[in-house]
Amino acid sequence: MTSTTTGTTTTTTKSSSPPSWISSLSDADLKADFTSFSSSGSITEADIAKALSDLASELTSSKTTLSASQLNDLKSIAANIGSMGASGYLQFITNALVNGNAANATWTGGGSSSVALGNLATGYTATKLNELTGKWFLGTDLSSSSVSMSGYTTFSVRYSTVTAPLYGAAGPTMSDINQGYLGDCYLLSSLAEVANQDPSAIESMITNNGNGTYGVRFYVDGQARYVTVDSQLANGGTEFNKASNIWGSLIEQAYAEVQAQGVITGNGVNDGNSFSTIGNGGGPEFAFEEITGASTITDFDPGRSSWTSYAYNQSFTSATTTSNLSASSVDSTLAGDLLVGDDLVLSSNTYATDSSGRYTLIADHAMSIYGYDASTGMLEIRNPWGVEAGQSWDTTFEVSLNTLLSDGDTITADNAGTASSVSGASVVAAPALQKMTQVTKFSVTDTVANVDAGLSGLIGDTKLASLTVNGTAGADSLTLTGLGAATTVNMGGDSDKATIAGFTSTGSGAGKATSLNIGSGYDAVALGTGSATIDFALGATGGVEDITAFNSAYDMLSVALNGGSIDQTLVGGGDWISSSTDLTHGVFLAGVSSLQKCTISNGVATIA
Question: Collapsing DSSP states into helix, strand and coil, what is residue 174?
Answer without folding.
Answer: helix
